[in-house]
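Narrative of activities, Objective 1.

The group set out to show that a structural description can be obtained from nothing but a protein's sequence at a throughput compatible with the screening campaign. Below is one input-output pair from the validation batch, recorded exactly as produced.
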Amino acid sequence: MKYFLLAGLLLPAAGRAAAPAPLSARLDKVGLTFTLGADGRPGYAVTYGAKPVVTLSRLGLAFADGKGFDGPMALTGSEVTDVDDSWQPVWGEVKTIRNHYRQLRVHLRQAAAPGRLLDVVFRVFGDGVGFRYEVPAQPNLAYFTVQDELTEFNMAGDHRAFWIPGDYDSNEYAYTTSRLSAVNTTPIAAIQEKAPATRVQTPLMLKSADGLYINIHEAALVNYPALYLNVDTGNFHLTSQLVPDATGTGAKAYLQAPEHTPWRTIVVSDQATEVLASKLILNLNEPSKLADTGWIRPQKFVGVWWEMQTGRATWNYADTSNIKLAGTNWNKLKTNGRHGATTANVKRYIDFAARHHIAGVLVEGWNVGWEDWANNWKEDVFDFVTPYPDFDVDALQAYAAGKGVQLIMHHETSSSVANYERRQDAAYRFMQAHGYHAVKTGYVGRIIPRGEHHDGQMMVNHYVRTARQTADHQLMVDMHEAVRPTGLHRTYPNWLACEAARGNEFNAFSEGNPPEHETILPFTRLMGGPMDYTPGIFRLQGYNAAVPTRRVHTTLAKQLALYVTMYSPLQMAADLPENYEQHLDAFQFIEDVPVDWDDTRIVAAEPGDYLTVVRRAKGTGAWYLGSITDENARQQPVKLDFLDPGRRYEATVYADGPGADWQKNPAAYRITRQVVRRNATLQLQLAPGGGAAVSFKPLPQ
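Output recorded for this entry:
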């Protein structure tokens, strides 16, 4: 570990007419410049080699009392520090992560009374920049309300952008690819109150005409609302938009000094593969706060879920509506005959998991309340401890344990967060008492307390508290409909995954996800952390009797490849057991592929077009490859130089079959085997909307 203090600097006070000289920091090709203009307003710029990444852009915070850090400011000093160390994640894509950056800390003081103090901290990495505002303890500032953040990201041109609308409550949109000048979210204006037509979400992926790949997001989002971006389509300037609270005053964050904001992150490279390999966001998060992590185990799982998504079964037990949970005698209600979470049906999934060495079984719809849960803005819906009459908690606990399988709890809150927080401790104690080690939470609907948003400060704090509280009970957690991740799984490694994007489920009940969708998500949503995408659908069409034309927009081989390209330590084999039973030769890849890795190599990538990734299984010499494409067929050569020298490997290739096409022939696949060495090259043929998955298992010497 190395820490070097390179420079300490006192600069002219506010009374000087001339603006102070710019401050700078550089690491490899990435350069950062901080300036204080003649008007006293702070700004910054970022370059990559000789190319501009962010041109001169404003910095600052506006407070509700009008005395914020929006200028004029005086520069009172600065320090530059180098850090170069490494750390090992509890789980992840690589065994060891290098943390190498040059830090520039800038000390500012308001030029006018009351002379409040602010630090702006920049960290320059070899693949980008992170910066945040730090408000130190000081006599003139204790409690304060952030009304707006003034951070800008001014782009040097009309870049190609991969974006979704800036909806404060949902990120489940298909991506639009357009120039910044063409960003227009008008189609969802009716969903959002006072939503500008040019507000987009982060992570925002950009590609410049001169070949730079630029990703804008945030890291370590704690006690602060999520960051959105308003796009100036004429000048290509991006300005910060924070999610407001429920008061209607426009307030965004209620803070107390000393305090700091999340990091604003800019990942940049002239290689798309290097953007995906970046660990900048993880490095900006704090180390694990958990003293004991031995109980955290990444895993695959199956579950009672897809049959509800496709209309074959229901979450609710009874054919009744508008039932009040309190005082209802559920044993006297007549079942609708289509309830999915029955004891017998769950045993069927447990049996399948046990036969195929799948560690977990998720069960949704096990607890009372589903008859009257969604879109009613109702506070008391679920109690998280009362099962339906046809779900025998104790019997299933014993049955699963006898098969070596663990059940995964489901807590749908219907966004009644006030109700869930009252009941969380009892719910987690119930889980512990019945052998559950992981929980999937859900936040469908409008938030209670009413008027709050999924991505506001109140809910951000709820998600973090939930990660802490589940950790206190030694429970792993997977959050759905939550704010998009910002690397906090480093700090709370029991927080295995989130949804926070348009997942595979949209193929069940909507027009579906376009073939390019899975080639964009790694450059956007997954930049902040793993996603529970629920891959592995084998019956690709005809699965919804009510809408027989509905289909998954991939080939079967691509569904296998997603287990490698869509990184998560929690991977679901999402289809029904009977659909897997018809293709057990292909299911073998799902059974084999790990969820925790020692090494990851991004072989080829282009957002919206294609992606090829290889990963080395933790603690073994086996490698696994996933390669996917958009709607276009491709030939993807893969050099096998990642394999160990002198070793032979059996490569099992799960590829698109002759005539495969996501529209015309999605289920066509073929499996071949060959012995390979590191000097070989595989030629993968990817069908339209297709992919390939490969396992490389070392042979005896």
